[in-house]
Amino acid sequence: MIKVGIVGGTGYTGVELLRLLAQHPAVEIVAITSRGDAGVPVSSMFPSLRGRVGLKFEDPSVANLEACDVVFFATPNGVAMQQAPGLLESGVRVIDLAADFRITDIAEWEKWYGMQHASPDWVAKAVYGLPELNRVAIQNARLVANPGCYPTAVQLGFMPLVESGLVDTSHLIADAKSGVSGAGRKAEVSSLFSEASDNFKAYGVSGHRHLPEIRQGLSRIAGTSVGLTFVPHLTPVIRGIHATLYAQMTEDADFQALYESRYANELFVDVMPAKSHPDTRSVRASNTCRIAIHRPQGGDMLVILSVVDNLVKGAAGQAIQNMNIMFGLAETEGLWQLPVLP
Amino acid sequence: MIKVGIVGGTGYTGVELLRLLAQHPAVEIVAITSRGDAGVPVSSMFPSLRGRVGLKFEDPSVANLEACDVVFFATPNGVAMQQAPGLLESGVRVIDLAADFRITDIAEWEKWYGMQHASPDWVAKAVYGLPELNRVAIQNARLVANPGCYPTAVQLGFMPLVESGLVDTSHLIADAKSGVSGAGRKAEVSSLFSEASDNFKAYGVSGHRHLPEIRQGLSRIAGTSVGLTFVPHLTPVIRGIHATLYAQMTEDADFQALYESRYANELFVDVMPAKSHPDTRSVRASNTCRIAIHRPQGGDMLVILSVVDNLVKGAAGQAIQNMNIMFGLAETEGLWQLPVLP
Amino acid sequence: MIKVGIVGGTGYTGVELLRLLAQHPAVEIVAITSRGDAGVPVSSMFPSLRGRVGLKFEDPSVANLEACDVVFFATPNGVAMQQAPGLLESGVRVIDLAADFRITDIAEWEKWYGMQHASPDWVAKAVYGLPELNRVAIQNARLVANPGCYPTAVQLGFMPLVESGLVDTSHLIADAKSGVSGAGRKAEVSSLFSEASDNFKAYGVSGHRHLPEIRQGLSRIAGTSVGLTFVPHLTPVIRGIHATLYAQMTEDADFQALYESRYANELFVDVMPAKSHPDTRSVRASNTCRIAIHRPQGGDMLVILSVVDNLVKGAAGQAIQNMNIMFGLAETEGLWQLPVLP
Amino acid sequence: MIKVGIVGGTGYTGVELLRLLAQHPAVEIVAITSRGDAGVPVSSMFPSLRGRVGLKFEDPSVANLEACDVVFFATPNGVAMQQAPGLLESGVRVIDLAADFRITDIAEWEKWYGMQHASPDWVAKAVYGLPELNRVAIQNARLVANPGCYPTAVQLGFMPLVESGLVDTSHLIADAKSGVSGAGRKAEVSSLFSEASDNFKAYGVSGHRHLPEIRQGLSRIAGTSVGLTFVPHLTPVIRGIHATLYAQMTEDADFQALYESRYANELFVDVMPAKSHPDTRSVRASNTCRIAIHRPQGGDMLVILSVVDNLVKGAAGQAIQNMNIMFGLAETEGLWQLPVLP
Fold first, then answer.
1. Is residue C166 domain-shared with residue C302, that is, in the same domain?
2. Which site among A216, B25, B159, C78 is 20 to 30 Å from B128 CA-CA?
3. What gap in Å lies between CA D284 and CA D238, rounded to an integer?
4. C-alpha pair distances (Å), D143 with each of D134, D150, D299, D305
5. How far, in Å, CA of D287 to CA of D270, rounded?
6. Does residue C341 lie within any of the structural domains?
7. Are residues D184 and D80 part of one domain?
8. Is residue D192 located within the same domain as residue D64?
9. Which residues of A fall within a CB distance of 8 Å from D233?
10. B229, C248: Cβ pair inside 8 Å?
11. CATH number, residue C80
12. What is the ipTM for the molecules in this complex?
């Protein structure tokens, strides 16, 4: 059994890790920490876990995380860069679900996240945990930077096009829509039911923190700096991201075949028949990304639709997929639940 | 492996049976029928099953249901009473998720369901499939009448009180709220998003079909005819039933202990600490019923809160729980998924 | 023109007062105060008011509220009892939308609201602002205690029955469901979209602050202390309260006629045909209360359904209705908007 | 008083016309027709109108529409082209809320709407009813083709850019999101609460009927054929359209000033401060279109956000705005209600 620790388990990413890990056949959850809620049984905060998860939140200072094989950080940005290095040096492997180790350009990271980076050397050693791109490197990673939710949906959607060199990468557009759980379990007016329900809006059009992450990923794939306009929106669903991607083709090709071939061996990426419309609920509570390719009216603009559950493939599920790869398990272990529909 | 057939799999109960049975380790789904959609791959109607359920809907006339060990009827009321007897006589065991075999008083059934009963003799042989009440009889049942969603939540909530004889059973009140999936996947104006969303209403106050079913169940338990006022409501959630139950005590007792003791060995009934407030999402997509007991202000009125997922413990999950009992499997087999929260 | 001031306009009750008062033909809004947001244009917090409400929030210390004819307090409980007396003594009339002056039994108020009352003498002078009950007293009131949202729906629903003496008032039950805006615009985890959406739950079953208010009101009407079980629930709608009321009849009568007659002259109470099911959206954004009467199965239990918009008839609209009465205007002035459906 | 008739009043556009017209000070609703619901009081189908609209639906054959000054067609596509010409020849002015007279290229219309056009000559005489573009022509129009909901939001959003000639009009992108009421009050599985709630999806990416309408409008403004990729999505809100528009600039300019100047005299178009994010609820139940202009990261891609209520500015409200213009009333008459928020 893999001994697992979770740092910061009181948010949505944390409870989703618990839901999935508690059902994972090869995992034993050893400790879960929370500074503010130490002593509280996990199941009294999340009654969905009653009778199934017996742990209490522990204060980080007393939790024996060094005894774990792997520790997941489900903390706000800026925590893992402080606390992970100690664990890493003790030989514990770490998967960070926050943004601390995602951006390799430290100055860029500091600009977008508004703080000084505490551990630039570990940024250099971290592996960006998108298995469909970095599977081999993940196997031996000591530190995995788990991708953001938008970056997962957008990169999986654009990847075959950018790899192929068949589109103009200087004017890519990602019009993305996220469910409200993406904002976390923080008490903020803008996330209130009476604000977010029966309402739709864009936000962060001037610049969202996931922009540099996506741009970095696509630029690496392209081998050159890409131009990207990224517009996130808030839609009144709990879970789910829908990315609508626009790219102008520079050369004709069978794009459907391109995608099917690229993802033929990926168990968590489903390329739907041409002209399909994946809906977010078709991946709800599952680790799957579904993609559909369109070329409307036979013109030169390609439209790619890509959906994920932001808490699963966009966070906790992908983190466990990375853990499975790191520990030599089948990639689907503990992650093969069917989506919940309706 | 248990060979399973499903008759009428295009509704929400049908797709939920598929979701759960496809992940059940002891089951092989042999056939699923639909008159209107014969030939259509199940996964093209329900993309959440893509890559995981390879079946096509078959016309009932060609599906080889006689080869099944058990057939689930997820059909509208009035179908199973026509088609189940033939299968039963071939030795196939049947679990009917509709209402055809739930009410033993044929005249009463015909009054509420507005049609003549085609198979009164099988009504007499059917076992009412509420495991917490009828476990032993279910083991050897050839035909199980799976309870309705409201009746499951209401009967589990009232059962310990009515068994104990400590309340006035002549004026029981069940104020119940259901998610919209309870109305099925039928195209009806009243179930449209723009009608049901951001809205709350009662319906069927004059008389709902689940009233005689609940009354029959509670009267059997009480050993005498109970008086029940049942008011169903529609709340804008997809899945979930919340029953708020009122009973006037006739004698003092430790009601919390009564419930805990009654359900001590029931894996799918969770009696919460006194004064808890179970929410429907705490059982979403799971087979659990959560119950909390209140006695406000120390008065003589007891308030019991009982929640289930109408598609799982209120339909498909309970049907599979019955199947597990009928075939000697662990009752939780294939049903031990944690609720999806948020 | 009536000169109006609003104290505490940054919550949902405040913005609803603004929406309605800005369209009221006999009103001039002179000042709106907010300690935390002084200087901020109202329309930058609530873009729905852009181009139509030019006011800025003012600090309470500088706002010239004494120059107003009437001041609405849309503040948290405990503020008006501090600040209203000074205004009242300057001759300004006050309508308090919070609970400070609703309960005449000071000890009872202090028990439920957890603070010492700062102005018991003004409690004695305040008029409870339910026009359908207290219209004459409201005309000359200096201080109106505007009813709570649940109390409005429940009292209007029970009033004819309790006045008639035809039911057992020792075991009244009010099973009430509220939209999430009833919890206000406070940043709290329990009101987050990802918590409250696609979910249903009861809360405060042990005792909710509106219980003593309703009990006081119904007891006054009955002329004797009534017994009431009040169970509030949270339903995922923005606006709306649905009260399902249960009373056991002690004598037969034409209850439909009773209600129609009682409310024949009430422009904001609509008694629907017998056996109707009012939905909350049928009063959305309007000052109407709709009521339907049921006697299921011809038994002895009456079921009354009563719906209001908690922000209008349950708060801001009723406050303006009270203002209209106090200033001799037509009661419907500025309040005659049709509900928004769908 | 303007004598108004409504043909086909049982859909959402119909009930919204009724809500607005019943409160319009210069209008008398003379007749409302429905073949299927003749004889039914309007308020029994829409209880929100109880006590305020006394009309019954009439069979079209008996309704005296010729006595009206203006008739609104709120019918499915293909009805007005059959029935409007007779009324027009009797001197009645007509406003068609469907698509029959919107596209001047008859062959194009027939391709997208799948039927033969019954009245091509009236297409030539019809005025496209976007007041911000065609105000003068509308004044004397006998027949107004009221724009579609998406076309209203998209054209108002793009208009200043396209007029200015400062962007590349060969690759415009409109990523648009609509509330579910845009699909009408038809009983269809895809519009059910349990399908559309807690879900987000694109649809019609291959080609939506509003594409040729938008393309025609923008091409007229540009004076040349524009290239447009239009991707509609369904978001779980009742009312509201959010259009996110992308255009590549070909020349620098003060785009904020351009928009403010273009719409300076438009009472129903609100240009927000630069970098704002209009949300759909900020125009809910009102006739306003709010627009915000972005130029992310100072690049060459402009992002325009444009929101309307699809049932008001996108349908019934704009129709009444057109009526006000046709009859010489103030444009805001009966349309000056503030949005309902929250």
1. yes
2. B25
3. 10
4. 13, 21, 44, 31
5. 11
6. no
7. no
8. no
9. 177, 242, 244
10. no
11. 3.40.50.720
12. 0.97
